[in-house]
Amino acid sequence: MPESVFLAGDPDWWRNAVVYQVYPRSFADSNGDGLGDIRGVTSRVDYLANLGVDAVWLSPFYPSPLADGGYDVSDYRDVDPRLGTLDDVDRMIAACHEQGIRVFVDIVPNHSSDQHAWFRAALLSPPGSPERARYIFREGRGESGEIPPNNWASHFGPTGWTRTTNPDGTPGEWYLHLFAPEQPDFNWDNPEVVEDFQKTIRFWSDRGVDGFRIDVAHALTKDMSEPYPSYPTGASYELESIPSDGSHHLFDRDETIEIYRGWRQIFNSYDPPRVAVAEAGVPIDRLNRYASSETLGQSFNFALFNTPWSAQEYQSIIASSLSQATAHGSSSTWALSNHDVVRHATRFGLPEGTDLNQWLLTDGTKPELNRELGVGRARAVTMMLLALPGSTYLYQGEELGLFEVADLPAQALQDPIWERSEHVRKGRDGCRVPLAWKSDGSSFGFGSDCSHLPQPAWFGALSVASQDGVAGSTLEMYRDALRLRKSLNHSEHLAWVDSSRDVLHFSRADGWHNLTNFGSEAVAMPAGDVILSSSPLAGKELPANTTVWIRVRRQASAKDRVRLPSEDCSPRASK
Ligand code: NOJ
User: Fold this and answer.
1) Three-state SS at 355
2) Which of 71, 432, 486, 524 has its CA 20 to 30 A from that of 341?
3) CATH number of the domain residue 41 falls in
4) Are 167 and 206 in the same domain?
5) Residues 502, 356 within the same domain
6) How many angstroms separate the alpha carbon of residue 220 from the centre of ligand 1?
7) Residue 345 lies in a domain
8) Into how many domains does the chain fold?
9) Does residue 101 share a domain with residue 130?
10) Which of these, 417, 320, 335, lies nearest to 378 by C-alpha position?
């Protein structure tokens, strides 16, 4: 392991960090096999430093049969040989740290791959054996056990149970998988599972990893006592169906929170303490259970993934997120995209209420995408989020203004959702297409001549090379915003400022104001020095779908003095 892999410094660095998500298979391919890899990430650390991010989060790079893009892990403490070696990861961490960039890795604790040594051993062992007790095996119902133990669904559809075949070829028990059949759920009541994940966290912390993103953090422990409740919602468990008293059999259980208390002790045993962010699909007022300083510390807030285009709606979400985080000693998180959702430059360019899955099934032709509007709004909202207190999570390629690749041919699709839904849901491959680094060439500089998902011709015009140094490009806007944010974001104070109904206006310390125009007409801007705008300004007016940062030099009035979010987070009334 290279020396000086540990980054010291402010233990609260994570509270206002900009974290860049790398989907390793689609970021940069160092050996030309069409698959992004760890050396590819290392080769682009200068790019990340130049972008100005504080940390990178790498989606799983562990050995995996890729039944679910790497979220089916067969060994939690190793690297997929197609992506590199542990030495490569050590070098990547050291290269990031040399540039002051922290590193998060993904922990997938709800399920493993069916190729994990433990699951293979379980299949070779009899019912009731210690090997089977690491997963959730049950007898089926019906005369010969041919009916699954209950009606619980898989997120990817349809059933959450798969029947095993005994070594002698006869049908056997069933096992639970909340995702694909290749992703059996662990039995978190088994101390062996608890200990093994603690070992994994120590393993990566010892190698210098600074933080962890926890996959499906609200799952893990389950109440498997009978009678089983019926969850007839098909392929998805809606947030609304999760009661707020912790009584759901599958999600958001108190025992799961206890597991994170144990992890917190491990995080805090390092200097500086390791940090974590939960991917927890629970109602907003339950997120703090995962984000408390006694558990994971921070939690993703996915509310902005489908917020209607309205200043009031955004303000309401921002205000409640800030007050929740402040009340629980955490800091808010903001994100517009990740590897699971249609890219936000596309969402913003489609008519409000578009069914995104239906749109994908038309290969992105109906309704028609308004690219100019989409990227304009994407830039405006990104700048607005970067002006807020809290951490912003960026997804690779959004700094290029990338759109969803909606017309991937069926034979190219890799997401298990496509097959499991019997071709009714197209899945998430359209946001996972390998990045374009150059404006031409057979894989636009991703690797040599191939990429594991086909890149469209329009990627060239949005490539890094096409935008690097180009004034007004989305890439340069991100670079400017991240650089300026570092010098402006001194405190976590925020105050709402009364403004026009369509403008979301708030101020931060030292006269830093953010105005975002959600309306369709330009509006007058307050007097002040323009720091940055998301699109060109028209004189003293703020155009529609635009954000501006202004330094206002007048004395703060009582109305807009800087206040802590906890003092005033209620959305302003519509006028
Ligand atoms: C959430 C991950 O973000 C997603 O990509 C994955 O399919 C599921 N968890 C299952 O691990």
Assistant:
1) coil
2) 486
3) 3.20.20.80
4) no
5) no
6) 13
7) yes
8) 3
9) no
10) 335
pLDDT tens, position by position, 292-309:
999 999 999 999 999 999
The CATH code of the domain that includes 162 is 3.90.400.10
Question: What stretch of H or E contains 122?
Answer: helix 117-123
Helix H, strand E, coil C: the string for 183-209 is CCEECCCCHHHHHHHHHHHHHHHHCCC
In this structure, is residue 343 part of a structural domain? yes
Domain containing residue 165:
117-176
In this structure, the answer to whether residues 333 and 459 fall within a common structural domain is yes
Specify the residue with its C-alpha closest to ligand 1, atom 2: 215
Which residue among 340, 395, 421 has the greatest number of ligand 1 atoms within 8 angstroms of its CB, and so is best to mutate? 340
pTM assigned to the model: 0.95
567, pLDDT greater than 60: no
In a domain, 574, yes or no: no
> Residue 563: is its pLDDT beyond 50?
no
Annotated catalytic residues are 215, 279
Task: Describe the chain by its helix, strand, coil percentages, rounded to 5.
Answer: 30, 15, 55
The DSSP bridge partners found for residue 22 are 58
* Residue 31 near residue 39 (C-beta atoms within 8 A): yes
**Greater pLDDT, 490 or 566:** 490
Q: Which atom of ligand 1 is nearest to the CA of 416?
A: 7
Q: Which among 72, 76, 216 is the best mutation to test ligand 1's pocket, defined by most ligand atoms within 8 Å of the CB?
A: 216
Cα–Cα distance, 565 to 75 (Å, whole number): 43
Residue 539 reports pLDDT greater than 80 = yes
Q: How far is the CA of 517 from the centre of ligand 1 (A)?
A: 34
**Do 268 and 395 share a structural domain?**
yes
Q: How much is the average pLDDT of 139-149?
A: 97
Q: Where does ligand 1 bind, in terms of residues with CB under 6 Å?
A: 68-69, 71, 108, 179, 215-216, 279, 339-340
